[in-house]
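Exercise 4. Each item below gives a protein and its sequence. For each, produce the structure-token representation.

Item: Pyrimidine 5'-nucleotidase (Igneacidithiobacillus copahuensis).
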Amino acid sequence: MLPRFLGLRRRPWPVYLFDLDNTLYDANVHCFPQMHRYMHAYLQEKFGLERAAAEALRQQYWRRYGTTLAGLMRHHDTDPHEFLQAIHPPALAATVPADLHLDRWLASLDGPAYIFTNSVTAHAERVLARLQVTRHFLGIFDLSAAALRGKPDVHAYRSLLRRYRVAALRCHFFDDSRANLRTARLLGMRTTWIHPRRRQPGQLAKLPPACRKSLGGAR
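Answer:
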């Protein structure tokens, strides 16, 4: 079946890009605590660190480089695929609940939607399945697709635009990270910030109806 937005129209349809964790669902509750434990265990095993030191190293690299992995690759020549596999086991998405409000809201969008994530495709697929919104997304652009240079590195955004053959000016990007949105705006994308600490179930679905056509959300 053809996507609902295909057909005759006077201008190209918009393209919607969605971060995954803490944008489509509350990862602070359903994902990040477990992921951080997996990261700490990995760092403790690889470098012989105490838990507190492992947590400090994770936060240091995340703040400085945008992802913990970027810091590990830069300073420790860490195998990225081993690390990503270690922190994204199948059980990570097990507590993510279905979101029927999100499902209906995504169905109202007037253009194609893609996932743009610093995680891995397998994790994104499991989360979308748990949310019951897989059908709304035409693709998943993950960290490997960006040659391991994730958001907010501009390389990731340009690689995504090339992959899907779209212009930045047609894109509207949703993310919980201001740094990630800043890069998107510099390229000409429209953006909406999803506040990570004030997030509520169905938050995206509570955006005003006008967003479904022009999505002139907060920049």
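Check: The chain has two domains: 15-25+96-212, 32-92.
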